[in-house]
Structures are given as C-alpha cells and as structure tokens.
Amino acid sequence: MRPAEMGRAPQDTRGNWQTYLLLLLALFLSAFPLYWMFVIATSTDEAVSRIPPSVIPGDQLLTNLREVFTMQDVYFTASLINSVIVAGVVTASTLFFCSLAGFAFAKLRFPGRDKLMIVVILTLTVPNQLGVVALYILMGKLGWNGTLLAVIAPSLVSAFGVFYMRQFITHAVPDELVESARMDGALTLRVYWSIVVPAIRPALAVLGLLTFVATWNEFQWPLITLNGTEFPTSMVALSDLASGNYVIYRRVLAGAFVATVPLLVLLLVGGRQIVRGIMEGAVKS
User: Fold this and answer.
1) pLDDT of 279 over the 80 cut
2) Residues 6+ apart with CB under 8 A from 209
3) In this structure, which of 114, 131, 205, 268 has its CB flanked by the most CB atoms within 10 Å?
4) Which of 222, 256, 232 is closest to 79 using CA atoms?
C-alpha cells in the first residue's frame, strides 16, 4: 500500500435511501406479476371476476391443478416431461458445441477463421421468423414434424453461444498455457477438455442457464411443429389451455404457475453462478 493511501479513510460504498427505494420498486414490479399469477391460480371463478379483485391467495390451488392435469386434449403432464427433455438435450448440446467452436475460433489458427466468425455474428441479425417456413419444409422432408426431434435439432447450437464462448475463452485461457500443453504432447481435444473446460466453468453455467430458460419458454416453433399432437411442450399446452371461446383463467394461470416453478428453482439455485460468470467475464474483458 502506498504511503498516501495508508491514512485515507475507506470509502463508504453503501447506497442512500433513494437507491434502496428504487431497488424495492424494481423488485415489486418484477415480482408482482408472479404473485398475481399465484393469486389467480389459487382462486375460484367468482373470486377472479370480483371487482375490485382480491389480492389474497385462495385455497383452490390443488383443485385447479387437478383440473389442469386431467383435462383431455391438453396432455399437460406429458408437456412438462417433454419440456424437460427438450431443454435438457438442447442445453447439453449447446454447451458442448458452442464451447468447442468458441475454443476453435479463439485459440486455433485455420484459414478463414475471422471471416467465419463474422458470418456467425451476422446470423444473429436474422430474425428466426424468416426461416420458419423453410425449416418446416425441411423437417417435413425428414419426417420429423410432430416429434420432439423437430424442436431439438434446430437448437443444438446457437450463434450467440459460439460468440460468447469465443470472447470468454480469448481472455480466460492464455495462449502460453495452450502452447505448453501442445509441447507436452496434448492433442487438441485433450487441451479442450483438460485446460479450456475447467477455465470456463462460470461461462458454461451462465450459458447453460440462459439456454435452458430460453428453450423452456420457446413457443413459436414448438407451436408450429407440435400443434395438435400428443407430444407438446409446456408452452404449447398452455396455449391449448387458453384456447376456446370461454377461457377459464384460473386454469390457465395454474398451469402457468406449474410451468414457472422449475425456472424459479433453477434461477434461485444458479443465480449466484450467473452473477459470478458475468462479473468474471467483465473483469477479464
């Protein structure tokens, strides 16, 4: 420590009351929709239509959930299982392929590397909706429409994941470490598995959580390819709950509450890992 810094009083990093008030307001605005969903999911039809509405949860949650899980042509139980399968497979595949591609773009030297990276980044500017028709035709020719393969296959790797991993690996893994491993006789996959993967675990956690949440919440493409089948995802099943001339909102929001619980648990368990990964990426950059 420098002499000039020894007598300096430590700075107070605590925020003032306006900061805490703003944070509490942001927390309220973020959490109230979830709370209101729970209130409706535990209420009766009379309580839902009451004016002014009640903001106290009811005691009909189990009854509403029983109706949701026993409704015909909705397949809500199967939809939750299918969402777990799709989100799990897509997350595992994205972590493997994106980290492997990010390692190649960051540390390997091959012709056209930078141009290919530019192409990957440019694909992020193309809306997914533009490729829906072509993707549907392709899945039809493969015979996959109406199956989970049609939902899983197009999402096995993401351009954002490749770019994110490339940026993180560039700063997290020194070139000298890779070169020393090569001098010891390690092959490329050995370098990737033994050196790169341990160094990028925070980034893998962030990408994994973001990918799982995005895949779980995906609605447009599963609705197109799985609509009317017995293999829906949770979002498609929720759309079936909300279809018809008379929508029973307590059922819809009871189903939405069940579909939201796994994401809340995942974010509560891995929230610190997300913050840690983002902060480490910011410090390294």
Assistant:
1) no
2) 266, 267, 270, 273, 274
3) 205
4) 232
